[in-house]
Design a protein that fits this description.
This protein is α+β, with helices and mostly antiparallel strands and 203 residues long. The protein starts with 24 loop residues before the first strand and ends with a helix.
Length: 203
């Protein structure tokens, strides 16, 4: 299933029928949070919610706090179904009881190219002279982790022309350097446990 896009449908029901994964628990999957170096590079953990009613917006706010996402960036994020086929609107209500549970995914839904540098795009501070990148560090970290997960799991469609292969190679090197820093390992230790292959790019 390809990653959700703007064309992906919204879940329309007021209350969700929760599928069984772990009884009485709603799990919000996260791609990245400040302690992600302790976990697998393509899975940064989850938040678990038990017994009660929760709106998608409430869950997004809780996930943002854990991931260090500032309120100004909340509108860029949304919840998706576990198979990444649909988005949940902010007012969608999840009802969790003893017989129901579900996994949803906290993802960046809205992203536009060139939002990450002063050269092409920026936002103003209170004074016009206070120019800053549109996206801050924690949001970029999350975007990188989400893209990393999509690529490794084969959900990102990557053509295999020479330019794309060179880009993928550069990103793989950057990713291994990043993982080495997150895990506080030297690069040789990371290289012994991390491998990227063309098969992963194909899924």
């Amino acid at each position: 299933m390809p990653p959700t896009s703007e064309d992906s449908p919204l879940i329309g029901d007021s209350f969700d029928s929760l599928s069984s994964t772990s009884s009485g628990t709603l799990c919000v999957h996260l791609y990245h949070h400040p302690n992600s170096f302790q976990l697998a590079p393509d899975s940064a953990g989850s938040l678990n919610f038990t017994y009660g009613d929760y709106t998608a917006e409430q869950l997004c706010v809780a996930a943002a706090k854990v991931c260090g996402i500032l309120p100004v960036y909340h509108p860029l994020f949304s919840l998706a179904t576990e198979d990444l086929s649909c988005w949940y609107p902010p007012n969608h209500v999840f009802r969790v009881d003893e017989s129901c549970s579900k996994v949803v995914v906290y993802r960046i839904r809205f992203f536009f190219p060139n939002w990450f540098g002063l050269q092409n795009s920026y936002r103003f501070g209170p004074a016009n002279s206070q120019e800053k990148p549109v996206l801050d560090g924690p949001t970029l970290d999350y975007l990188f982790a989400q893209s990393r997960s999509d690529f490794i799991s084969g959900q990102m469609d990557v053509s295999l022309n020479l330019e794309s292969q060179e880009t993928c190679l550069g990103l793989a090197v950057l990713d291994m350097l990043r993982i080495s820093k997150e895990r506080k390992q030297n690069l040789e230790e990371t290289l012994r446990t991390m491998r990227f292959s063309q098969n992963k790019a194909k899924g």
